[in-house]
Write a structure and sequence with these properties.
CATH superfamily: SPOUT methyltransferase, trefoil knot domain
Strand content: 15-25%
Order of helices and strands: EHEHEHEHEHEHEE
Helix content: 25-40%
CATH class: Alpha Beta
CATH topology: Alpha/beta knot
Distance between the termini: 31 Å
Shape: globular
Number of domains: 1
Strand order of the largest sheet: 3-2-1-5-4-6
Radius of gyration: 17 Å
């Protein structure tokens, strides 16, 4: 059901997998920003989050808690070797999109990326990204040509990839659901268990 809503519909289903590979996470320095990358990936329609190089229990705990309370599911892996993961992804017919401010402006390639039915692996760097990642990527895509947040870049990219249809995701099994309101906060509680 393209662009529709329903308990089983997900915008990534068009591609099978849309995963985000986070490079260069430094647990003591990048914890908060990496959690935000993971939360944006999940909320904006990625169905997998991969943490390269290390495992960070706080990332796994946060994703697990968010999935338990807010519903849905996102695959999580950690400690992978980035180049090996990318090569395996490509061997399984996937394509790799590296978000970098040094790439081709995304408005020039987003339609081509969106039209391809291949699974998508979106690379988001933390520290300086090694040259090999530029070489292994099918697309080096810039959201903007000025310094900016990788969280913002990922959100904009996923929004444009799905043409905003991520807003129709029904997160199955949600215990909490926000009820839109022009004043105040309204949250519907659907579960008997605590989050």
């Amino acid at each position: 059901m393209m662009g529709g809503a329903g308990p089983e519909w997900h915008p990534a289903s068009k591609y099978g997998k849309v995963y985000v590979l986070r490079l260069g996470h430094r647990p003591q320095r990048d914890k908060r920003i990496t959690i935000h990358v993971a939360l944006v990936a999940r909320a904006f329609g990625a169905n997998g989050f991969i943490l390269e190089g290390v495992c960070d229990d706080s990332i796994e705990r946060t994703l697990s808690r968010v999935n338990r309370c807010w519903g849905g599911h996102v695959e999580y892996e950690c400690g992978v070797k980035g180049t090996r993961y990318i090569k395996g992804w490509k061997q399984n017919s996937g394509e790799v999109i590296h978000l970098t401010m040094y790439g081709v402006p995304f408005n020039e390639v987003i339609d081509e990326i969106r039209m391809s039915p291949r699974p998508k692996l979106i690379i988001v760097g933390a520290e300086k990204v090694e040259r090999i990642y530029y070489e292994l990527s099918d697309y080096n895509v810039s959201i903007g040509l000025q310094p900016h947040s990788e969280v913002a870049a990922l959100a904009i990219f996923l929004d444009r990839l799905y043409r905003g249809s991520w807003t129709n995701i029904e997160f199955h099994g949600a215990k909490l659901k926000i009820i839109p309101s022009d004043r105040g906060k309204r949250v519907e509680w659907r579960g008997e268990d605590e989050c």
